[in-house]
Amino acid sequence: MLSLFLRNLFFTILQPGVVAGLIPYLILRNKVDEPFSGPFHFYKVIGFLFFLIGLVIVFYCIIRFAVQRKGTLSPADPTKKLVIKGLYRFSRNPMYIGVLMILIGESIFFQPNNLWIYTLFIFSMFYLFVLLVEEPRLRRDFGEEYVEYCQKVRRWI
């Protein structure tokens, strides 16, 4: 169990941590302190809520992968069984949605155009990855079970 925890921690830092944390921080550079020193704006609350909901979704999915399916979020160390419960009853890709909500929240909160462009780029990369890599692999690994799941649950929302 410790090994599974460490693998999940590693992949959480490596994947969503870099995509939704490190890279946006580097994009923002010295602007990270600005929104906290200026006047209050309602859009900051909206941005924070998007960020928080996205963070909860990502951690919920990671925990579900580890505890119930004995795997990680990484295609390099996938779950042993198809995850179809919890948020996966509503979307085949809630973890990607969670990361996108974090990025949208950061974009709303900090308001830089280049972070919005990055968010659109990441969505495009997620979409292509899911379509061209992840779904074919899941179809190959889980066969008819995955095909039936795809018929019942939408790809995104």
Question: Could you describe the 3D structure shown?
Answer:
With 157 residues, the chain is mostly helical. It has one domain: Four Helix Bundle (Hemerythrin (Met), subunit A) (Up-down Bundle), CATH 1.20.120. The chain is built from six helices and no strands. It has helices at 2-28, 34-37, 42-69, 94-110, 113-142, 144-152. Helix 1 (2-28) packs antiparallel against helix 5 (113-142). It starts with a helix and ends in a 5-residue tail after the last helix. The relative contact order is 0.15. The model has no long low-confidence stretch (mean pLDDT 86).
Secondary-structure blueprint of this entry?
Blueprint: H1 2-28, H2 34-37, H3 42-69, H4 94-110, H5 113-142, H6 144-152
Write a concise keyword list for the protein shown above.
single chain, 6 helices, 157 residues
- Biggest sheet statistics: none
Q: pLDDT below 50 for ≥5 consecutive residues: which ranges? A: none
Overall tally of structural domains? 1
What is the ordering of alpha helices and beta strands? HHHHHH
Rg computed from alpha carbons, rounded to a whole number of angstroms = 17 Å
- Categorize the overall geometry: elongated
N/C terminus separation? 32 Å
Assembly state: single chain
CATH topology: Four Helix Bundle (Hemerythrin (Met), subunit A)
Helix residue percentage:
over 70%
Structural class: mainly alpha
Got a strand count? 0
Mean pLDDT: 86
CATH class: Mainly Alpha
Strand content: under 5%
The number of distinct helices, counting runs of at least 4 residues, comes to: 6
In CATH, the architecture is Up-down Bundle
